[in-house]
Amino acid sequence: MPLHESKVMTNTQKRSEGGHFSNLPMDIVFQILQHLDPLDIVAMRATSRSLHVATSERIVWLSVLDRICEHYGIFKPTFPFEEMSLAQLEHAAFSSSRFVKTVQRFDPGPLGDNCAPVYQHRTIKSPRNADGKGRLFLIPGGRFLLTSGTEIRLWDLGHSSEPYHVKPRVIARTEDGSALAAVCPSDDGKGLVVAATSSADGRSTLRIYEIDIQCNSPAFSKAAELVFDDIPHFSSLMNFHLTSSNIVIHCRTYFASWNWKERTGCKWPIGKEEISDLSIYGIDDTVIVFDNDNQFNIWDVPDHCPLSHPSSNDLANKPRRPKRFHRPAKTPALATHWNTIFSGTPVWQRHLPPYLCTMATNSLHQHVKGASFMPMYTPVLQRKAEAVFSDYYERVSELVSPLYQSGDHLVFCASSSQSEATLVAAMPIPKEYSKEPIPISYMMLSDGLGGTFNHFITVHNGFCPMSGRLAYAREGVDEIVILDYLPLFSAERR
């Protein structure tokens, strides 16, 4: 037993003398508390003096926060665990559930426009790339931000439970002109894996970087690169699915799968005409895409073959047809005026059951914008998807974030062309098939400048419900805004 734990237990036992707690040894009490929900722990605090003392020990909340990070895919280096006070540990442990409650509290109903107040507002300078867009990714936990413009930068924003305003600082950057494509956690969850692209002379290069966040001087360490002679440039951030060792890439007329650690890969044709914008979602060895015909296509990734050269020309060609087609509700065949987008559980939450969410909007009648909202289990291994359908509020027109799981809710960020605003929505995780309306709560987001967002084009993936933090690139300005929607928390005033 570590010495500091033994000392904590001894002090607690001394303070508990004379109480009416059970005869359980205090180390057993700690073990029980560390596996409870944070709300249950705080509720027990009011039952007796002994439990008040036990539930106020840092060792309990250190374990609780570590478990929450592991379960919900929060990047653990976000928090300097041993340096955090009891109040900071409790704030971090409660942030995810508090944000869902904030959404529910500010839900104005279908006719209202009630904005959540901004607790903290900061800006950072970040030059945009040649197309005038600022790409970014807020790492789950909210502390680390990747931005892409003339270079890729990794920022430390400070964690959301800091009791004072932290000045953001750049802790690592690239110097090769690469553009951010995707990011995921390393195998041990303590580092970052970054995919980046660059284009020159009519061809593109995909680079994989690894970042050790916990070292004294984090850096983008190039792990591998793959050259695509037939791709002038990659068109969208949604064209990649990245894991800690493999990446699947949409290359217009074909898919490529590359394991850079084992130096293996393959490719297979899409089987249709060239598609410039195609959303990809991957889970294990299955790839799900949504095509221009408003239907899902589901492939099993073919077996990889060794690569002798770091070029897409060396990828083994393995023709393969999709194993399943699936058409979402309210998007009938040949319905050319239905636009469908989808999002899913991010790779960061790899320990949780995966869900997909599709949204179909009718673009023919812009003044009456209907939406069909469908979260469902990912349809893999020939199993049929369990789906829940609902007509959602007309104000929602586009999903712009992954489908995060927070407690027993799914949380996502969306934009609205009707209200010219951005909102966050939360809905209970569906348990079974139903045609009943889904009780979805939403709150409008203020832009930190006295108004609401009038667009959300460049904010993709700048949202973290586990910290109540949002980052977005301002239109026409080399500036990124960081907003916090959760004030510091006291468990005694929950």
TrEMBL record:
SUPFAM superfamilies: F-box domain (SSF81383), Tricorn protease domain 2 (SSF69322). It comes from the Eukaryota. InterPro entries: F-box-like_dom_sf, F-box_dom. It holds the Pfam family F-box. Transmembrane segments: none annotated. Signal peptide: none annotated. SMART domains: FBOX (SM00256). Residues 18-64 form the F-box domain. This is F-box domain-containing protein. It comes from Ephemerocybe angulata. The lineage of its organism: Eukaryota, Fungi, Dikarya, Basidiomycota, Agaricomycotina.
